[in-house]
Amino acid sequence: xxxxxxxxxxxxxxxxxxxxxxxxxxxxxxxxxxxxxxxxxxxxxxxxxxxxxxxxxxxxxxxxxxxxxxxxxxxxxxxxxxxxxxx
Length: 87
Hints:
Layout: H1 4-13, H2 21-28, E1 31-37, E2 40-45, H3 48-57, H4 59-69, E3 76-81
Parallel strand pairs: 2-3
Antiparallel strand pairs: 1-2
């Protein structure tokens, strides 16, 4: 399921969860796409450092935001590097 439009809505709520404007601009604006696989929400970026940083520091806040804004059924969130096959 393509949830790119849902992701744009979720992104607009991230600042409500103690994420500073600067952190948002650095770490969340580079995200280019989102997909839903079963109960897993996957977001994609072209920057490897973004994958590492969000997965290490923002995963819990991101999951909470997705659950609150989209669906409580989402049990996992992951940030992955976009590959050419994803297009």
